[in-house]
Amino acid sequence: MEPENKLKFSLNIALVSGIFCITVALLLLLNFMQMSKNKPLESKALTSLVKRLSQEPNSDELKQEIRNFDLLARKAYFNSQWQVKTGGYLLLFGAIVFALSLRVFIGLKSKIEEPDVKDENDLTSRIMTQRWVMITGSVMIVLGLVASFASVDHLQKYDVNESLAETKSIDNQDKVEVIKVGEIPNATQPAIADSTKKLVAGNTAKVDTSKVKATLVAATKITFPGSNAIKVNASSFRGPFGNGVFFQKGTPVEWDAASGKNVIWKTSVPKKGFNSPVIWGNKLFLSGADQQSREVYCFDCNSGKVLWKQPVDNITGSPATMPKVTEDTGFAASSLTTDGNKVYAIFANGDIICFDMDGNRVWARNLGLPDNHYGHASSLVMWKDKVYIQYDTNKSRKLIALNASTGETVWETARKGKISWASPILADINGKFQVVLSTDPMVAGYDAESGKELWSVDCLSGEVGPSPASGGGLIFAANEYAKLVAIDPSKNSKVWESDEFLPEVASPVTANGLLFIATSYGVLACYDAKSGVKYWSKEEGPGYYSSPVIADNKLYTFDTSGKMRVYDMAKEAKLLGEGNAAEKVTTTPAFANARMYLRTSNFLYCVGKK
Q1: What are the Cα distances from residue 111, in Å, to 104, 122, 400, 516, 558?
Q2: Where are the domain boundaries for CATH 2.130.10.10 in the chain?
Q3: What distance in Å separates the CA atoms of residue 601 and residue 255, rounded to the nearest whole number?
Q4: Do 309 and 350 meet the contact criterion of CB atoms below 8 Å apart?
Q5: Distances (CA, A) of 542 to 243, 479, 523
Q6: Residue 462 gets which letter from DSSP?
Q7: Top-level class of domain 227-607
């Protein structure tokens, strides 16, 4: 490049970078002025709301309003923080480019002789103008950098010890236990978890309500249910731990929808869905969805009354349009799960949401659009403080564990294999729970705490829909056009296998040394769980999509026509009773309170002794 061209090029670079620096500096100064006037923890509106709370301490609506206001304020504040930090880096970069290009320009100019003699006054004026431009630009850059550093983290003065502690005084109210951010029931978005933790975790000093929100501090510590509490309820698809065995007694073996025999109540569900009921105490949960919207429902187990209905919307990252799904999968195929504190639901577009038992929204997020040609159908299961999600799609396969209180990802384990529509179960192996998943080509077990793969056996193929089952120290898995396999997880090997009767959708179930399989072509078969010896098989009805389940030491089955058959848990096929929903049934019943709850194409039924 010729010296003249180099001179022009360096001058242009200097001018552009200088203008860029001045523009960024002005924006940083304006941002600094705005942040100085609006202190994030001293909002008059928030202060007013907190004062109202001291007068109405039991107002859940007011508490939720404070939480929502706090969330919006924090999101705006931390977005501004990001802008300031990014602007500071850009300004620094622009200043370096400006200085280097200006130095090159001055160096080149000093080596090139002036062709014309300039008037002395003209030259002096020009030099003074250049100096003032440089001085003004430098001042602007310095002020911008100072503003960017001065704007960073106004919350540092509120930083506290993050260990668990108790508040000593909250406006002379009762002492409460402060919980870690991972246990805050109203931490609405994972993005603000860190800032929330700084405000509430371990704060032992007197709390000024104009600065720190008493509602976040005065949270009640969550107690997660143990095995016995889970067994009393029906917390997941196919009951406790997702295993198909209900620990209930007294459920009738006969009923009829048309005549009303043993039908305590029936009610319609607002939106369509293929998920099965989950129950805790006297509350039953379902979800429904279509192209336009998604909803979560809570029903009263005693009356069938809708206690609350909540929309699933305004979720960050949620796709604008719903994915393509098949008619028999729909947009709400995945069953919910609950721990008695909250209820969790997932939908075909990857949205997962958490409500408390009264229908208040706690957190929500999108896991990414599932790439499934039928639609997402894997149900949720949980244990202690984690919600487990089998997210095996065409694009990626993984097991995800979310923090039940905040929705944050605790861990994520990548998996080999192919897409799957099966649901995870929890299996007690040698006194410790594992999360067990089925897909093509393997069945695998993962540590429930860490997500580490503990064992894996290649034994399946095709489009896997049935979930695994656990019992007697063994894991059972099956799929149509593949095999029925018994696996010893402690030895990481197959115990026995069979290819005579194989399910397409319905999951196997085992108890008392017996294993039951229901096929889509109408065969129900019973095997010895340890040896694989077939005891009996019966071909009845059009086929099974509903998974066979065990309750009160009896086997309950529903074929797709809605016909129920109840069998004795024995080595011989003994029919104990029948029922009829009089319409198509593809979901799996749930048992609680000595009653059976069934979702059909059009209704939700409660069956029990009147």
Answers
A1: 11, 21, 66, 93, 94
A2: 227-607
A3: 18
A4: no
A5: 25, 18, 9
A6: S
A7: mainly beta
Q: Which amino acid is at 420?
A: S
Amino acid (1-letter code) at residue 498 = S
Q: What is the C-alpha separation between 377 and 168, in angstroms, rounded? A: 48
Tokens matching residue 225: 């249910």
Residue 595 near residue 252 (C-beta atoms within 8 A): no
H-helix or E-strand spanning residue 547:
none
Where does residue 598 fall: left (phi above 0), alpha (psi -120 to 50 degrees), or beta otherwise? Answer: beta
Do 601 and 583 contact (CB within 8 A), yes or no?
A: yes
Gap between the Cα atoms of 351 and 331, Å rounded? 11
Looking at residue 185, the DSSP 8-state letter turns out to be T
Pairing of strands 523-528, 563-568: unpaired
Q: Are 385 and 405 in contact (CB under 8 A)?
A: yes
Q: 294: buried, middle or exposed (CB in 10 Å: 19+, 13-18, 0-12)?
A: buried
Tens-digit pLDDT profile for residues 197-235 = 433 344 433 334 333 333 443 344 678 999 999 999 999
List the beta bridge partners of residue 476: 469, 486
Low-confidence ranges of the chain (pLDDT < 70): 1-2, 35-46, 51, 54-55, 57-64, 67-79, 81, 110-221
Residues facing 6 on adjacent strands: none
DSSP run (H or E) holding 97: helix 60-111
pLDDT digits (tens, 9 = 90+) for 50-66: 767 766 766 666 666 77
At 114 the pLDDT is 53
The chain-wide mean pLDDT, for the chain, equals 83
Q: What local confidence, expressed as pLDDT, does residue 432 receive?
A: 94
Query: What's the pLDDT score for residue 177?
Result: 28
Nearest to 183 by CA among 31, 363, 59, 17: 363
Q: Is residue 270 reached through a cis peptide bond, with omega within 30 degrees of 0 on the bond before it?
A: no
Q: Is 464 left (phi over 0), alpha (psi -120 to 50) or beta?
A: beta
Identify the helix (H) or strand (E) that includes residue 216.
helix 214-217
Residue 169 is encoded by which pair of tokens? 């005084």
| Three-state SS at 408 | coil
Q: How many CB atoms lie within 10 A of CB 195?
A: 20
| CA 495 – CA 410 distance, rounded (Å) | 34
Residues in the chain, total? 610
What is the reported pLDDT for 7? 72
Question: What is the pTM for the complete model shown?
Answer: 0.67
C-alpha distances (whole Å) from 321 to each of 20, 291, 378, 393, 396 are: 39, 8, 20, 18, 21
- Helix axis angle for 60-111 and 3-37, nearest 10°, is 160
Place of tokens 């706690």: 362
C-alpha span between 113 and 269 (Å, rounded): 88
Are the CB atoms for 211 and 158 separated by under 8 Å?
Answer: yes
Question: What are the φ and ψ backbone dihedral angles of 198, each rounded to 5 degrees?
Answer: -65, -30
Parallel/antiparallel/unpaired status of strands 386-392 and 381-383 = antiparallel
Give the C-alpha separation, 237 to 242, whole Å.
Answer: 5
Strand order in the sheet with 397-403: 381-383, 386-392, 397-403, 409-414
**Chain centroid, CA 191 distance in Å:** 13
Which tokens sit at 474? Answer: 């063994």
